[in-house]
Write a sequence for this structure.
């Protein structure tokens, strides 16, 4: 995908301690991806900033079929935009609900 240029923010997918994840689409190509938006306010704290910096250092180096692919990132104003592969087949919770009792622990 390379550098993400201009994109549309889409449906909210989920959130965590450091931000929120949305579907997104690049305007010029129509490529869909996920964008994780992390708020880098002073309230975040040094420890949490180090966690985010660690993620930025490690993600580009990872290449495995079971790990979401890193595409790019940028920092604008006080927000980190982390562009990631979009996995829109549903969450692990959806899988558990679908399989019900058929899902055996290994």
């Amino acid at each position: 995908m390379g550098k993400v240029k201009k994109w549309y923010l889409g449906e909210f997918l989920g959130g965590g301690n450091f931000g929120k994840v949305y579907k997104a689409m690049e305007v010029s190509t129509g490529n869909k991806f996920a964008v994780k938006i992390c708020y880098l306010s002073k309230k975040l704290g040094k420890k949490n900033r180090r966690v985010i910096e660690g993620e930025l250092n490690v993600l580009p180096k990872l290449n495995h079929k079971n790990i979401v692919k890193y595409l790019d990132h940028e920092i604008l104003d006080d927000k980190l935009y982390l562009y990631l592969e979009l996995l829109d087949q549903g969450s692990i919770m959806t899988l558990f609900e679908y399989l019900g009792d058929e899902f055996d622990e290994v």
Summary: The CA atoms of residues 3 and 72 lie 6 Å apart. The longest strand covers residues 7-15. The two ends are 36 Å apart (CA to CA).
